[in-house]
From TrEMBL:
Belongs to the peroxidase family. PROSITE patterns: PEROXIDASE_2 (PS00436), PEROXIDASE_4 (PS50873). The keyword Disulfide bond applies. Removal of H(2)O(2), oxidation of toxic reductants, biosynthesis and degradation of lignin, suberization, auxin catabolism, response to environmental stresses such as wounding, pathogen attack and oxidative stress. These functions might be dependent on each isozyme/isoform in each plant tissue. Keywords: Calcium, Disulfide bond, Heme, Iron, Metal-binding, Oxidoreductase, Peroxidase, Signal. Residues 26-220 form the Plant heme peroxidase family profile domain. It holds the Pfam family peroxidase. This is peroxidase. SUPFAM superfamilies: Heme-dependent peroxidases. One of its GO terms (biological process) is response to oxidative stress.
């Protein structure tokens, strides 16, 4: 990894590791300059040592961040181990025996904790895995039991429950579509129906292809 890009790489690992407890606009590399001035240097030292020991580790750590952040935002959930009551992301089909670098994250956490105990908090400490894994929240806060355009209205008010949902109305090319659906429930219903029909027409088995099952749960 080129030295000029290494600082940005450390910023990425910083985001993966720590939840700051402040608004996203305040997430900056210098946030802990006063309360834990050695944190950034500690992360830099551990990551550099890990990559020097195994050159592939830089890519592995970036992939670890991608799997954490791409769905539902950067919350550190990919770092959680399985428990008797919860199956974590580590052992999910796409990640099991594939994601690497958890030991590096552990070393970084230990290093920073030794410098500033209890100052830089990881999500694993903020949200313990015994805190209730079955808590549910409606995707549509206004009409959770009705299939309508409510979720688009939530996005317009920046109240999308999932980070990935809110990105549909965040200054991008899909803003106008969200705005249209929020104002016109009939248009949403019609477009949704058409989309489902299109999806159902993706290479269906017809004629002599496949079989008419006697029991839908198993082949004849």
């Amino acid at each position: 990894m080129a030295p000029k890009n290494f600082s940005s790489f450390i910023h990425s690992i910083w985001i993966l590791l720590f939840v700051f407890g402040v608004a996203s606009a305040q997430l900056t590399p210098d946030f802990y300059d006063k309360t834990c001035p050695g944190a950034f240097a500690a992360i830099d030292k551990v990551v550099r040592a890990a990559i020097a020991n195994e050159s592939r580790m830089g890519a592995s750590l970036l992939r670890l961040q991608f799997h954490d952040c791409f769905v539902n935002g950067c919350d550190g959930s990919v770092l959680l181990d399985d428990t008797p009551t919860m199956k974590g992301e580590k052992t999910a089909a796409a990640n099991n025996n594939s994601l690497r670098g958890f030991d590096v994250i552990d070393r970084i956490k230990a290093e920073v904790e030794s410098l500033c105990p209890g100052v830089v908090s990881s999500l694993r400490a903020i949200c313990p895995i015994t805190g209730g894994d079955n808590n549910l929240a409606p995707l549509d806060t206004e009409t959770p039991t009705v299939f309508d355009n409510g979720i688009y209205k939530d996005m317009m008010m920046e109240k999308g429950l999932l980070h990935s949902d809110q990105q549909f109305h965040n200054g991008g090319s899909t803003d106008s579509q969200v705005e249209g659906y929020s104002k016109n429930p009939e248009a949403f219903a019609a477009d949704f129906g058409n989309a489902m029909i299109k999806m159902g027409n993706i290479t269906p088995l017809t004629g002599t292809s496949g079989q008419i099952r006697l029991n839908c749960r198993k082949a004849n």
